[in-house]
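Researcher: Sequence recovery benchmark, item below. Answer with residues only.
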């Protein structure tokens, strides 16, 4: 499975790999429980995005299992946990996974933090701190969080699959922009799962997207949103 230049997995690559694995499973009589990462066998950080976000590895196996069973659930519902969602229409907040007893109603455009996914039979529900909501993709749009973006200032800047300074896994070039999940010591953890220096001599905080969206009315189709948190930090959200 090939990665993008920044080490991320393109959606098309993810989907094609699922299809190939499904065909191999059918051919050799295997299922999702027979799938292993290089990391599981040799402890090599591969595929790096699946190590950085184990939930994506779980999602990959779930997609394989779904297609082996001919199940279309994940086409309609979130079957993995987004960090947050925004409501695409008015929805209810419910006491339990059956979604029978309403606590309150949320209008279109409401942002909610998701803690996990639970199931009512085979139907997934999203759990918040106050109750349960639908996981239907027609009703909510999921996001992962980030502290912002950075822009590379030099050519041939090393990146690593762990927070270290030796034996780089590759290089990025001047002008490239990356989404940052969090800062780890003197390094940034990128959305791709790789680490890069946080030194202002080599990278700079890239605020154009944040500045352009401040005060803008949220439109889910824009694919990006900025929230000014109460603690003074800015959170950048991106679609999943």
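Model:
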């Amino acid at each position: 499975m090939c990665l993008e230049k920044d080490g991320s997995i393109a959606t098309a690559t993810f989907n094609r790999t699922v299809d190939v694995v499904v065909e191999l499973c059918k051919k050799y009589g295997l299922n999702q429980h027979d799938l292993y990462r290089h990391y599981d066998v040799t402890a090599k950080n591969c595929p790096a995005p699946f190590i950085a976000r184990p939930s994506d590895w779980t999602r990959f196996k779930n997609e394989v299992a779904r297609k082996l069973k001919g199940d279309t659930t994940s086409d309609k519902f979130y079957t993995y946990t987004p960090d947050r969602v925004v409501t695409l229409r008015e929805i209810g907040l419910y006491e339990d996974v059956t979604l029978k007893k309403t606590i309150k109603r949320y209008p279109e455009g409401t942002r909610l933090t998701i803690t996990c996914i639970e199931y009512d039979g085979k139907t997934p529900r999203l759990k918040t701190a106050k109750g349960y909501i639908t996981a239907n993709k027609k009703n909510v749009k999921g996001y992962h969080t980030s502290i912002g973006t950075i822009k590379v200032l030099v050519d041939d800047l090393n990146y690593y699959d762990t927070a270290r300074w030796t034996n780089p896994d590759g290089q990025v070039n001047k002008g490239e922009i990356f989404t940052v999940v969090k800062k780890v010591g003197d390094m940034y953890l990128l959305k791709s799962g790789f680490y890069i220096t946080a030194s202002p001599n080599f990278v700079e905080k890239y605020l154009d997207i944040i500045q352009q969206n401040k005060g803008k009315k949220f439109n889910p189709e824009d694919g990006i949103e900025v929230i000014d948190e109460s603690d003074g930090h800015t959170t950048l959200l991106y679609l999943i």
